[in-house]
C-alpha cells in the first residue's frame, strides 16, 4: 500500500525462483496477493521509475502461512501425559481450540496492521490538504488586503478637491 507520495501509485513485480513473473501490477495504490510457493528465493520489487520527481512511502506485509508446521512438535507433548481418560475434554480438542484462537489472533493482528497503514495514508492526505487550504487561505487574505487598500485609495481620490484655490 502506498502511504504517501504524488499520485499514491507504484508498480509491483513478484518473480518466482525460476524467474517467472507471478504478479505484475502497474500504478496501483494497494493490493493483496496470495501465491502458492515452492522452495527457493522469491524477488519482489516496488518500482517508481515512472515518477522520477516524487518519492513514495510504502507499507507492505509478508505473511507466511503454514511455515514449520510439522506434526512432530504437536505430538511430543502426548508422551508426557497419562490418564487422559479422566479428562472431560480430550487434549486434542484443547489443542484444536488453542490453534483456532492462535489463528484468529494472528488474523486480528494482520487486520490491525492493515488498518494502521490505511490510517497513516489518510493522515498524510489530510495533512497535505490542511497545508494546501492554509496556503490558499493566506493567498486569499493577501488579495483581500490589497483590494481593500486599492478601494480606500480610489475612494479618497474621488473626494479630493483638485481645483487650485486662489487666496
Automatic annotation (TrEMBL):
It is found in: Endoplasmic reticulum membrane; Endoplasmic reticulum-Golgi intermediate compartment membrane; Golgi apparatus, cis-Golgi network membrane; Membrane. Keywords: Endoplasmic reticulum, Membrane, Signal, Transmembrane, Transmembrane helix. SMART domains: EMP24_GP25L (SM01190). It is a single-pass type I membrane protein. GO terms for cellular component: endoplasmic reticulum membrane; endoplasmic reticulum-Golgi intermediate compartment membrane; Golgi apparatus. It holds the Pfam family EMP24_GP25L. It comes from the Eukaryota. The chain crosses the membrane at residues 135-155. Residues 1-64 form the GOLD domain. The keyword Signal applies. InterPro entries: Emp24-like, GOLD_dom, GOLD_dom_sf. Belongs to the EMP24/GP25L family. This is TMED5 protein. It comes from Cephalopterus ornatus (Amazonian umbrellabird).
Amino acid at each position: 500500500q502506498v502511504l504517501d507520495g504524488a499520485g499514491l501509485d507504484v508498480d509491483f513485480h513478484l518473480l518466482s525462483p525460476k524467474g517467472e513473473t507471478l504478479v505484475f501490477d502497474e500504478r496501483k495504490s494497494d493490493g493483496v496477493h496470495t501465491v502458492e510457493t515452492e522452495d527457493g528465493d522469491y524477488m519482489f520489487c516496488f518500482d517508481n521509475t515512472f515518477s522520477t520527481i516524487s518519492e513514495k512511502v510504502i507499507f507492505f506485509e509478508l505473511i507466511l502461512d503454514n511455515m514449520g508446521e510439522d506434526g512432530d512438535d504437536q505430538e511430543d507433548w502426548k508422551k508426557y501425559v497419562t490418564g487422559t481418560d479422566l479428562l472431560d475434554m480430550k487434549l486434542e480438542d484443547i489443542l484444536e481450540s488453542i490453534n483456532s484462537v492462535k489463528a484468529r489472533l494472528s488474523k486480528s493482528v494482520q487486520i490491525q496492521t492493515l488498518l494502521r497503514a490505511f490510517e497513516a495514508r489518510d493522515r498524510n492526505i489530510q495533512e497535505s490538504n490542511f497545508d494546501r487550504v492554509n496556503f490558499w487561505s493566506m493567498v486569499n487574505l493577501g488579495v483581500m488586503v490589497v483590494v481593500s487598500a486599492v478601494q480606500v485609495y480610489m475612494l479618497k481620490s474621488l473626494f479630493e478637491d483638485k481645483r487650485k484655490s486662489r487666496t
